[in-house]
Amino acid sequence: MVKGRAAIKRRLDAAAIACSQRGSRLTDLRRAVLELILMAEGPVTAYQLLDRLKKSRKGAAPPTIYRALDFLLDNELIHKVESLSAFIPCIDAGNHSLSVQFLICRRCGTVAELEESTVSEALERAAARQGFRPGSTIVEVQGICAACSTQAP
Amino acid sequence: MVKGRAAIKRRLDAAAIACSQRGSRLTDLRRAVLELILMAEGPVTAYQLLDRLKKSRKGAAPPTIYRALDFLLDNELIHKVESLSAFIPCIDAGNHSLSVQFLICRRCGTVAELEESTVSEALERAAARQGFRPGSTIVEVQGICAACSTQAP
DNA sequence: GTTGGCATGATATGTTATAACTAATTATGG
DNA sequence: CCATAATTAGTTATAACATATCATGCCAAC
């Protein structure tokens, strides 16, 4: 979630530039979906995005959304949180963060994105010890965030 | 996947004892589902289990399977591999392995279960640094296993 | 201006998971 | 033993998530 129309516009413009540098195009549709993800108050599911997109695109259907999401994932503009089947913006798109960790609050639903080399390196060593050549990894921790810990039960 | 009828029977009997010690019951249905998971050649999905279960239980429906799976998960007899939406036996049921890691081979589909304290501890420290109180965690690595690495492309 | 590649539209269907209600079975207290 | 509560399982329906397939449009390069 990103606050402020101006901040969102900056992110969208930066994304368009990053895409063109990679030889891909941030089309109107893809830009609209990314905007919805940036505006969301936390992780959003594909069908939530579909409902919201329909307000501006009458013919939108599941493939409309899933194709845009695939593009945004490939271009490292968003992340998928597997355990929620939901999507969030990359904290720092452009910095290709190959190995990230998510802290998912059960109480308030917010997802914090970490990039801890201690974790990813421990995991790489463990995999190497098994002769396993790692590709992508999923690291998601469910729990209670700091803000919610200090609140009334 | 567990080889041999005798080994499977031993695992099932051990599971029944472990359950009764916890005050839960490994009923016929739950035992049948666990047996299917032990017999499977790798991770199996809920609906694959449903198809197989139907051969002995004509009325089986999705809730039949999902309730049994929930029970087996609660009693730490199986694991869910989130990124496959599939289920595998616990390597060592009884040893409550709170924090495990899975190495998932893209080629052959096998899933290796690790219990690396270096990984789980790095993750706990990272979470603690954010004031985050962790509950359950998912750590899944997709890649190519040792056996597949040494094979022809 | 035609060709070829990418993007989108449109329809249908596949896959995973749960809700809600009923019936059967099993434990438990008197 | 019997009544009753609690747990387990059966049944139907549907929610939620994701992809296949084929048609159409758009634009750029030749």
Structure characterization notes:
Two copies of one chain form a homodimer. Helices cover 45% and strands 20% of the residues of chain A. With 153 residues, chain A is an alpha+beta fold. The longest helix of chain A is centred in the N-terminal third of the chain and has 18 residues, at 5-22. Chain A starts with a helix and ends with a helix. Chain A binds chain B through residues 82-83, 101, 103, 105-106, 112, 114, 116, 118-119, 122-123, 125-127, 130-146, 149, and chain B through 82-83, 101, 103, 105-106, 112, 114, 116, 118-119, 122-123, 125-127, 130-146, 149. The structure holds a DNA duplex (30 and 30 nucleotides).
What's the arrangement of secondary structure elements?
The structure is a homodimer of 153-residue chains.
Chain A: H1 5-22, H2 28-39, E1 44-45, H3 46-54, H4 62-74, E2 78-81, E3 86-89, E4 101-105, E5 111-114, H5 117-129, E6 133-144, H6 146-149
Parallel strand pairs in A: 4-6
Antiparallel strand pairs in A: 1-3, 2-3, 4-5
Helix pairs in contact in A: 1-2, 2-4, 3-4
Chain B binds a DNA duplex (30 and 30 nucleotides) through α4.
